[in-house]
# Entry
Amino acid sequence: MLPAVDGVVESARGTSSGTRWYRRTTRSRIGAVPHRDDPGSQGYDERLMTATLEPRAHGTARPRDLLGRPVHDLRISVTDRCNFRCTYCMPKEVFGRDYAFLPHDQILTFEEIERVARAFVELGVEKLRITGGEPLVRRNLPALIAMLAALRKADGEALDLTLTTNGSALRALARPLADAGLTRVTVSLDSLDDAVFGAMNGIDFPVARVLDGIYAALEAGLDPVKVNMVVRRGVNEASVLPMAGWARDTGVTLRFIEYMDVGHSNGWRLEEVVPAAELAATVGAAWPIEPIGAAYRGEVAERWRYADGVGEIGIISSVTRPFCGDCTRARISAEGMLYTCLFAVRGHDVRGQVRGDPSDEALRAFLTSIWERRDDRYSELRSRATNDLPKIEMFAMGG
Ligand code: SAM
# Structure
């Protein structure tokens, strides 16, 4: 049982091993904005906040790229900094004390992020994912969430607004984020074993603190809470089944991620990838699973449900079963570079456009021209030749 929390409604779900309890709250989608009196290093403009509370009527044409793919998801990196040094993402040998992260004046302000997100929504984006680096280290993040939660699709509906985090600051921030309008969250956790997790996160960060962040997200009513686990051969394979069992008992959706060749600092080798098929077989042998279809075109994870009805898992198989044909994702980095592929070697300078021209129409035209020239399908082309490309690091681009 989780500790009692004031004003929280308990709910229960049955499992094969008994009943698991967690708490849900009801909350407004656009709640009070926390930390209003803390200007932070990237403050926000009250007038703009109020202006964006109104739904927008827009009927802008939706661009398609050269392979006929629309833009559906926008991943927004709010910082290139992270408090973890995961060996597969930001190894401490490369990103040590002397590493020069972006200075504050080079990262997009909240107002600039909102403007870019709004332009993308007008071009057809329906889902926003806040990421980093570690997004929770960006000061006043709930204020940005409130600004983005106020955006509306052409039909007046709210967007799917979510966030990916290492969970280390979720105990403090889950409630303010939910109150600001965050609907759901994904937390990264690679093992329940402290020795394995501590070695993978590079700073010996304890499992218990991430679990506590996950419980805080559940208590705050974020729904669903998903957990990402990168699986690396010879490092945390033994953690697959304990993680799956824990996720079943807790009521979170676990998603296994094949170790990917993002960036060029992690020394990636194909031999270290545990293929999706093997992951599904391992879990299925313990608890039978059956495939379910994607919720929408371009959904990242292959979904499987447990045959006994106790939830589902996802597997993100970018290496062994690439899904470029359905990739509808754009990424905007903390410094405002637009990337149209996770494995891109170059981006497009949206910050320059935003700071140089106040016209929203010009911004939409700029983004449209980039999207309409897009033909990326790196994962399908992955080969020895692509291995040596000077790819951008995931934490810099936004994971
Ligand atoms: N700091 C946040 C976090 O830890 O979730 C957000 C950024 S992180 C780059 C986003 C996701 O990318 C995490 O789930 C992380 O495990 C995953 N990731 C990073 N490098 C990866 C790699 N080489 N292969 C597969 N997944 C990776």
Q: What stands out?
A: The CA atoms of residues 129 and 162 lie 5 Å apart. Confidence is low (pLDDT under 50) at residues 1-57.
